Amino acid sequence: MTEADKREQYLLQLEQKNNEHKEKCKKYYKENRERQLKKIAETRQTEAYKQRMNEFRASEAGKKSARISCWKQMGIISNDYDALYNKWKETTYCEKCNVELVEGNKGKHKKTLDHDHNTGQFRNILCHPCNVIRGNEDRGVIRQTNDEYNENRKWKRWIKTFQLRCAFRKLKNN
């Protein structure tokens, strides 16, 4: 038996042991799943666990973890979420209109993470109005000026009035 054959036989034995171990783990998981879930649920009900979780959520690491999880749930894709989070923290002005950004969910110029909804790729950190405008541009929504909007409203009211008059005349003639 050559060295190559011995090596190949050894690798096959390793693979067989690995597969056996995987099967053993799967069997253990299936047999003990309910017990483990019950144990986890009981642990989460303890005051000590709740206190630790509240402390973690209030910490910088907890806030970072929550923010990145939210971005992932929204479908934002990034090669380096840590660098993206650092950029998020450091950015204080809109990258499009240069207005000062506000932290949190309130305020006209709140900080938003702009991304392409088709690919999920991050683009910029913008204020909310700039993000809405960019989203409308992506979807092909045409923004009207106030004069155009008012003119369209007048036209729509005139059409509605005209249709009502026509319907009234038909009823009157019948």
Polypeptide structure, described:
With 174 residues, the protein is mostly helical. The protein folds into three domains: 3-45; 75-139, His-Me finger endonuclease fold (3-Layer(aba) Sandwich); 146-174. 68% of the residues lie in helices and 6% in strands. The chain is built from six helices and two strands, in the order H-H-H-H-E-E-H-H. A two-stranded antiparallel sheet has the order 1-2. A hairpin with a 6-residue loop joins strand 1 and strand 2. The longest helix has 42 residues, at 3-44. The protein is elongated, with a radius of gyration of 31 Å.
Total helical segments:
6
Helix content: 55-70%
The assigned structural class equals mainly alpha
Kindly give the count of domains: 3
What is the CATH architecture annotation of the largest domain? 3-Layer(aba) Sandwich
Low-confidence stretches: none
Q: Main β-sheet: number of strands, strand sense, barrel status? A: 2 strands, antiparallel
C-alpha end-to-end distance: 106 Å
Rg over CA atoms: 31 Å
Percentage beta strand: 5-15%
Q: Mean pLDDT, as a whole number?
A: 86
What is the β-strand count? 2
